[in-house]
Structures are given as C-alpha cells and as structure tokens.
Amino acid sequence: MADTEAFERLPEAQRDVVVDAALAVFGRHGYRKASMADIARAAGVSKPLLFHWFGTKQRLYHYLVAFCGQVTADMYDTAALDAEPDLFERIRLASRMKTTALRRRPHLTSFLGTMLTESDAEARREFVRKPDDEVRNAVRLVVRPGDAQQLPPGVDPERLVRLLILAAEGMALAGPDPNDDLAAMSDEMDGYLDMLEHALATKERP
Length: 206
Prior knowledge:
- This protein is mostly helical.
- It has 2 domains: 1-74, Arc Repressor Mutant, subunit A, CATH 1.10.10.60; 77-206, no CATH class.
- Helices cover 73% and strands 0% of the residues.
- The protein has helices at residues 4-8, 12-33, 36-43, 47-54, 57-74, 78-83, 87-104, 108-117, 121-126, 131-142, 157-174, 182-200.
C-alpha cells in the first residue's frame, strides 16, 4: 500500500528532489515511456522506496498533476492583480508572476507541455488537465469588469486574453525545451502584447 503521507512528512528539500526528478523524467519521456526506475535513479532514491511512497507510476503521475495545480494556483498574487486598473499592465504583471514561479521549478514547464499532448489513454483519462478549464481560470484571474472600456467596440477582453494564453502554449509546444530559454519566450510574448496594446488600446485608460 502506498504511503504518500510518509513522503509528505519528509523535509521539503528532500521532497523537492523527488518531485523535480519525476517532473523531469515525465516531461522528457511522457507517461508511457517514463519508468519508476528512471525516476528513482534521477532522484537518488531506491525504486522500492519510490513504490513505497506512491504505489504505482499512475499514482505518482496523479500526485504530480495535483502538485502542478497547486503551484499554478499559488503563483499569482491576486491582490496585486486586483490593484492594477489597466488590463494590459495586469496581463504583464501576471506573466511576470508566472515566469518567476516557473524559474523556481525548472522542469514544471516541460511536464505541463507533455500533459497537453499526452497520448497514453491511462494518463489522459484520469489525470491530464483540461486545457479549456485552465484557460477559463486564467481569464478569470486577469479580466476585470470594465476592461472592455479600454478596447475598441467589438473587442472582447476575455477573447483577447484567451488568444494570448493559447499563443503562449503553442510557443511552448512548438519550440525547443522552454526551460532552456524561458526569458526569451517571455520577451517574445511581451512583444506580442505590446503590439496588441498599440493596435487596440483606446485613449480611455485608467
């Protein structure tokens, strides 16, 4: 029987080594090709101990998906976002918060990328995040009542934010490992945002 509680009782630094190793292996190989032996080797622990903590590869993957959800929920300072009246500045602030959080977890981005494209039915059926749900959560995080006043008639702020989120995810999937050049990808997205702001923002700014 798995003893995840025993894993949770470990010092945070020890847990981080195991979690980061598992994120890296799944992110590199995907669910089907990743093995508990590879993860144990990368984490510097024995395979029996890894099975003691998680029981199966499926349960470990489930743990990582829940972990990523918590990291994603915690990466944003909602009070700071609420205090920013300008839509475009709020998007930039949220982007900086996300980039800072991802730098602290260097293998999180590649793991999230494999979740988007995971083909293994076992992984997809139970654990792969629903991209539409993630996009809706991000829109709720950034868009505020009255944001439409900053945009030309007919331009929906929610659709604008959805467009930027989908573009960022497409860049992460299409390019090289985003962990190798997270700053460059962030700068590129800032450039797209600057272009949209120049084209769309009205003179009625907060």
